[in-house]
Design goal:
The chain is an alpha+beta fold. Helices cover 46% and strands 14% of the residues.
Length: 395
């Protein structure tokens, strides 16, 4: 996004999470429910909100200071995303920049970091699009069919991606494509490569973006590649090793989505508590009735337990320790907690919960997504069964 003014890195460290939370909450207060309801009705991208987060430095917390970021850990990113959702906003418009950043940070060359990271940190460029899922393969990533064939100093890309959210509002895309046919690789996990695509050069020509209207305002799309050229210098890391690079960042993705879910759950619980304390039926607040009180209390307990798992996953990730099991369980438990809290909040409000002005029906739809994306609950259970409990592989 050209024309953005330079920003100063956040003057926080990882020990200042409470101050980060207060700052995020203050920013979110500038974008109340009316703002989000309008965006939801029009299926419009919250550009003003994303711009404010960028200018405040919140979307560049993981970028090292030498490239214009804050150089903080995942704990800071998780606090930011949780607080956004806890305050009734929606981080899905920009969260990808957090969790796909690691591919460049850990596997990009020094020249790639120097070229791209300062512009991403300043807001001059947006890195929000992640091209992995395809219509025929879904989460079976090894079966993706988009190809990238080397021709001189370029790769020629052909294929299609689906559920590539924010592609219309991003300058850069992190793309996973097959560079070696499946029948010619030594290991089934090889043959895929990651590219940083500058969409400004190709959109409307060899790159076509088609919006998908969905139950929620998620700015998601289908993307078509037709002999699209990508400079060879935009290959991240080694050719055919891309799956490893993508998987390497998925623990961060799981943990950050878990943090968003915790934020949603706490928003729903707070709304339910306030309404149950004030709403009078039969001359008494409905919160005195155990049929109302107990579900709220159960959701609170489940949310606090899930929050501890999210915290544990982030802690391990920041320490550079294996965190796959914890990150997956964090996302699983947090997504379930947020959905149960959403259902409880709607039930507590009764008919008023369906009224747009209360924001519950919007957040109800939004938080439902996380039982499915970025990975479904069933696949997480399969991961736990096989990789944690040692049960036979189910797929």
């Amino acid at each position: 996004m050209t024309g953005a003014r330079p920003i100063e890195p956040l003057a926080f460290d990882d020990g200042d999470l409470q101050e980060i939370r207060r700052s995020v909450a203050a920013l979110c207060a500038r974008f109340p429910g009316e703002y989000w309801r309008e965006k939801d009705r029009e299926r419009a991208y919250p550009a003003e909100f994303v711009g404010a987060l960028t200018q405040a430095g919140f979307l560049s917390v993981l970028i090292p200071e030498e490239f214009g970021g804050s150089g903080l850990g995942l704990s800071a990113a998780a606090a930011i995303m949780e607080e956004i959702h806890k305050n009734g906003c929606n981080g899905a418009a920009c969260h990808a920049q957090m969790y796909i950043m690691g591919t460049i940070l850990r596997h990009g060359s020094q020249s790639q970091k120097t070229q791209w990271l300062p512009k991403i940190a300043s807001g001059a460029l947006r890195l929000q699009a992640f091209g992995v899922t395809e219509p025929t393969s879904g989460t079976d990533t090894l079966s993706l069919q988009t190809t990238a064939v080397r021709q001189g100093d370029h790769y020629i890309v052909n294929g299609q991606k689906v559920w590539t959210s924010r592609a219309e509002h991003s300058d850069l895309m992190l793309l996973l494509a097959r560079t070696t046919p499946r029948d010619k690789v030594r290991k089934r996990t090889e043959g895929l490569s990651v590219f940083l695509v500058d969409m400004r050069d190709v959109v409307g020509g060899t790159l076509t973006i088609k919006p998908i209207r969905t139950m929620i305002n998620h700015a998601t799309t289908e993307v078509f590649f037709d002999d699209m050229k990508v400079p060879a210098e935009n290959l991240i890391g080694e050719e055919d090793r891309g799956l490893k690079y993508v998987l390497d960042g998925m623990n961060a993705e799981r943990a950050l989505i878990g943090a968003e879910c915790i934020g949603d759950a706490r928003w729903f619980i707070e709304k339910a508590v306030a309404y149950a304390s004030e709403r009078q039926v039969f001359n008494r607040p409905i919160g005195r009735n155990q049929g109302i009180q107990f579900p709220i209390a159960q959701c609170y307990a489940a949310t606090e337990a899930a929050a501890l798992m999210v915290e544990r996953a982030v802690e391990l990730f920041d320490a550079g320790k294996p965190s796959g099991a914890e990150a997956n369980m964090a996302k699983l438990l947090a997504a379930e907690a947020s959905w149960k809290a959403a259902d409880m909040c709607l039930q507590t409000h009764g008919g008023f919960g369906f009224a747009e002005e209360y924001d519950i029906e919007r957040k109800f739809r939004e938080t439902r997504l996380y039982g499915i994306a970025p990975i479904s609950t069933n696949l997480i259970l399969s991961y736990i069964g096989e990789h944690v409990l040692g049960l036979p592989r189910s797929y």
